[in-house]
Structure formats: structure tokens, C-alpha cells
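Go through the following before class.
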Amino acid sequence: MKVIITGASGMVGEGVLRSCLKRPKIEKILVIGRQTCGYTDDKLTELLIPDFFDLTAIETQMKGYDACFFCLGISSVGMKADDYYHTTYDLTMHFARTFAAQNPGATFCYISGAGTDTSENGRTRWARVKGKTENDLIRMTDLKAYALRPAFMKPEKGSLHVNRYYWGFARIYPLGRRLSPGFFIMLDQLAQAMIVLVRRGYDKRVIEGRDIVELAKITH
């Protein structure tokens, strides 16, 4: 399997990248980002770009991949509504269309979030924007898109791109996992779930936390 990963300089993307690097069935990984991910490996290629809205210089290098694991995302806290929409919806759709043009029929796994509003009419701004992004990705006919909605994700020790406060929250992970296993997951489970989606597909396009846990149990 050959995959493209975005957002690898952030916690979620890094966790997915680390998982993919150690899986022998993934033979080639292309990381695209504005900052280096900080990892090197024989099967890893990294492309740094200044602007995700201008992919013309690299679009031909995106050809020949089975899937994109789109882990790029930002918090809406403190952002103007138009800026958040542009960075979340417009950027994601532009990247997905470019990827689809180079790899028609490939799989696109979009990391969304628990609580996303696919009605696009709810009170919470970020949930509406994420919901519209999910809806329009899934409507694309030249991609097989899935929207994954993890909640609390625990990174592995030794990860480079984790805010300090997150390790504090990680202390509640063992108890949270027992009480709500679909809400508390490992980043490695998220990566495994996406790999299964590429290889086997699934009967749902919106993948909630419990679906992620179940998919992650499937091995090849």
C-alpha cells in the first residue's frame, strides 16, 4: 500500500505516521506539510510546501497512491469564522480534488471529530464546518471518502509533536477506556482503522469512535 499523509507535524498526523512506518504492508509514504515531520525512513518521502492552496509544483508527485490520510486540522478557538471555514473546508476540498485528479478511485480518510454536525445547521460553528466538509467529501464521485470521528486520542511515548497538557489528560486514559472504549482510543488504532478502510472498505462512510475500535481489531 502507498499512502499520503498530511498533518504529520501535529499530534494526530505524527501518530498515524509512526504507525504506518512500522507496518510492512505499507511500502511507501509521502508526507506533505509546511513543516518537517522530524522522521526519516527508507520508505518515507517528505515534501514541504509553503501553501496548501497551491499544489501545482507537487501535484504530479502525488500520483500513484492508494490512499490519503488527511490529518491536517486546526482548532476554531480564537479564529474568525471566515478564516476557520477557509482553512478547514476550502483547504481540505482543494487538496482532496487535487489528490483525486491524480489518483481517481483512491481512498481519502478525513480526520474529523466527535460531535461533528452533518446537518450543517447546528449551533456550534466548528461542527457545522466539519459537517459540510464531511458531506462534500463523501459526495465526491472520483474518491472513496471516509470521515473518521475520534474523540480523545492517546499518543505513544516518544512522540515529538504533543502539547505538554495532553500528557496530563492521558492520565485518565485507563479509566476512560474502561468506561467508554469508543471515546478513548490510541492513535495506533486510528491508523489501523484507516488501513482497513483502504484494504476492505466499510458499510459506513462516517466512522464513529466505536467503529474505529472495531476496525482496528481487524488484522491482515
